[in-house]
Amino acid sequence: MVASEPRGWPAAIFATAVAAVAATLLSLSFEMNRARIAENRQARLAARLDDVLGDLEYDNDIATAHRQVVAPELLGSGDPADIYVAKRDGTVAAVVLSAVAPNGYNGPIELLVGIDNSGHITGVRVTYHRETPGLGDAIEADRSDWIQGFDAASLVQPSADQWRVTKDGGQFDTITGATVTPRAVTEAVRKALVFFRDNQVSLLDPEPNGTTLDAQ
Amino acid sequence: MPSRLYNAATEGLWRNNPALVQLLGICPLLAVTTTLVNGLALGLATTFVIVATNGLVALSRRWIARAVRILVFVLIIASFVTIVDQLMNAFLHDLHETLGLFIPLIVTNCAILAQAETVASKQAIGVAMISGLGVGMGFTAVLVMLGALREIVGYGTLFNGIEQLFGISASGLTIDLPGTGLLVAALPPGAFFGLAALVALKNIVDARRHDRSSVMEAAHDKAQ
User: Fold this and answer.
1) How far apart are CA B87 and CA B82, in angstroms?
2) Interhelix angle for B69-91 vs B36-59, to 10°?
């Protein structure tokens, strides 16, 4: 049995003291692990970006070369969207845009869209989604190769009326059992390409002024 | 003394298994058991928190003011969970990404608070920690079995994602079974069906054991 029986103020002071000790220990643990956690996040981001860029070669630290833009119309989010820049020999070889497909089956789908300096997709990866397991999650690169259907696509090839899933008369595959999900992703990728086209000059500037980009 | 320790250990493993008998901690149990590896990882993290909490509570049970004990227990549990969360984030980053929210949610597993209140606050540290270990392993065993069941039926794989727990050298252990899997097992309803099957299985085993021991008792009585 718990032996001591203090009530009222002594008990409250005891609880406060325990809370203070716990808070101190936790902040110590946080400090000890912080650098490592940040490093992990950075490494994971770099690996993801590298994945999105396919076999494109670049010579800068892409995870740290980043700008932001607010473009709710084309990138799908009212929050600042991250733009990562892959450079080769001082020129911009490709950019990776973080885009959101707001109309997924179970809410927004977050994407990374890699676009090379000639406006072709280098790769697309889903970074966050809540689509149905076993159906809509086929958009994950680990689950199926559907997402690779965008590789090398551009606004010219396929043409504007082909930028849809096959079910809507376009050229991108549908996913069995999930119609809404691939439709949302396809539209988000197309809009990311439109964003790239509209902001090409600024995006391909190797030494931009500041880290925020004003969308056209 | 050994029988008391034995009882403390087996209580949570079988007789009062938190997941199969008390049905505590069902939220993380149902949510993360889509694969064996996810189940194992959450089970081990939970076990660590239970054992550590039981140890600390048993050690300081004479000083914990009774009026605020629940608050203090929750504080201790939450602190250990946060430490586990940070350590996993630092050293098992991929796994941490997979389990996501469910590591912090270990705090809400009532099996841990129940252990602190009913065992650790009344027992010596050794018994309390062994008891916690039993409960943790009992919980882990159910998570692993349910995870394996749902992974095999739902995805047609086993040990998928094992490299997140044991490093890249273990990735060869993943088994791809023929067939594509039955979707429902991977969805939340599959978790309920799977858990129900395990509870039923335990009840059958218990009923058989009970029958056998009463038959033996009857035979024993006759012989006398």
Assistant:
1) 9
2) 140
In the sheet with A66-69, reading across from the earlier edge strand, the strands are: A121-128, A109-116, A91-101, A81-88, A66-69, A212-213
Is the pLDDT at A155 greater than 70? The verdict is yes
Count residue pairs from A and B with Cβ separation < 8 A: 86
A160 to chain B, closest Cα gap in Å: 35
What integer is the mean pLDDT of B60-79? 91
The span from the first CA to the last CA of chain A, in angstroms, equals 70
How is chain B split into domains, by residue range? Answer: 2-223
The ipTM estimated for the assembled molecules is: 0.72
Pairing of strands A212-213, B157-158: unpaired
Provide the number of structural domains found in chain A. 1
Largest CA distance in chain B: 65
- DSSP for A52-92, please give it: HTTT----S-TTT-EEEE--HHHHS-SSPEEEEEEEETTEE
Closest CB to A33 among B62, B89, B97: B89
Question: What is the spatial distance between Cα B23 and Cα B30, in angstroms, rounded to a whole number?
Answer: 11
Residue A17 is assigned to a structural domain of this protein: no
Q: Which residue has the tokens 């697309």?
A: A124
Residue A72's contacts (CB-CB under 8 Å, 6 or more residues apart) are: A78
Note every long-range contact of A89-95, with CB atoms under 8 Å and residues 24 or more positions apart, other chains counting. Answer: A89/A59, A90/A206, A91/A117, A91/A204, A91/A206, A92/A117, A92/A203, A92/A204, A92/A205, A92/A206, A93/A56, A93/A57, A93/A58, A93/A117, A94/A53, A94/A56, A94/A58, A94/A122, A95/A196, A95/A203, A95/A204
Q: Domain of A75?
A: 66-213
**Closest approach of A61 to chain B, Cα-based (Å):** 21
Asked, for residue A59, whether it belongs to a domain, the answer is no
Decide if A32 is inside a domain.
no
Q: What is the pLDDT of residues A37-93, one digit of tens each?
A: 999 988 888 999 999 999 999 999 888 878 899 999 999 988 999 999 999 998 999
From chain B, pick out residues whose CB is under 8 angstroms from the CB of A135: 183
The residues that bridge with A109 in the sheet, in sequence order, are A101
Query: Which residues on neighbouring strands pair with residue A123, listed in sequence order?
Result: A114
